[in-house]
Description:
With 428 residues, the chain is an alpha/beta fold. 25% of the residues lie in helices and 22% in strands. The chain has 11 helices and 19 strands. The radius of gyration is 23 Å and the shape is globular.
Amino acid sequence: xxxxxxxxxxxxxxxxxxxxxxxxKPMVKxxxxxxxxxxxxxxxxxxxxDIIILTHYRSEVIEDYFKNGASFGVNIxxxxxxxxxxxxxxxxxxxxxxxxxxxxxxxxxxxxxxxERLMNFHKEKQSECTLVVHPNDHPHxxxxxEIDEAGRVTAFYPKPHKKxxxxxxxxxxxxxxxxxxxxxxIPKGVKADLGRDIFPQAYNKLAMYGYNTAExxxxxxxxxxxxxxxxxxVSGKILRLNNENxxxxxxxDRDGTINKEINLLHKIENFELLPxxxxxxxxxxxSEFLAIVVTNQPVVAxxxxxxxxxxxxxxxxxxxxxxxxxxxxxxxxxPHHPDKGFPEENPTYKVDCNCRKPKTGMLEKAAQDxxxxxxxxxxxxxxxxxxxxxxxxxxxxxxVKTGYGLNDGDCKxxxxxxxxxxxxxxxx
Length: 428
């Protein structure tokens, strides 16, 4: 599927100081090439060759360097804003050029994304506006959003967030696939921002979806961020995190591993992180392993809480971790239980599923979603169910002495840790 790409490249780069003196922000270099050139190269790799660059400040610097794009293997046209109208207002000005689905990139964002997979997601969902989303390590001061199980956007939560409320750690990554339907929601000639002004008003009127990815997408708009992006580029990390490449993951059980073990925990007020959990997960985040929770939650099948109440508990977990600079790339849970006869049980979830550990369904789903090499990955848990699940899927298994401490059965993990704080031993 071939589509046009629009790059919003009118920024001045004030926060970059002397690093962006007299040049547009997207022309700041990451090693030997500007951010904009890195973006164009990434698009060209996926046969996205028809590119419109929206310019404003020092537009001639961009046009003189890239010209018509022929030497970069693409076709570039330019539209210079007469006055800054924000990300949404700028797009509205070129509405007549965008009759089919198109990509939108921000010119100061360094990325390497499997665009083919993203566009396929957009097409399969019949989405009218797809937002690339991901968790970050500072959700408490970020604009957050929420998606349902199918990926449809269901809510936006701008900062500052309400005290005492818990939120899913999911932020807008500033990369979009849009249909021309979006223009019905953007006023002409009015300064407006897509993320702040348009999406929160339009998500319940459009088929808007969130595409959750662990690929590299980072704003390079400050000196510190620019330095980090440069280090990541030089190390090859940016390319390695592209979804075309297999990733390694550390799968984490929840109860007794991340939070204190309470039998059949189903009340949000009883959820409490273990004191070392956030620090350990933050160490995973700094590695190139994914941090993914896989947890049996039969409390739903037993009728002790609803799926919505369970997901509120997970929001609390993500919020508490985020306050300490840690994030989870994904949470998979099994709400089923095969045995019947419990008071208040929910018959909908009384099934013999393939996701309840020690079965491997959750691991397999994560592997599909994130292109994970299971044989190069780990699972950490306090129960023999975790160990047996990992062994069945070919993972390296680690038991912890917290929670059940592996006293619920007979199993032999590859390693035994006192607790999750020993994570450094495998982060190589």
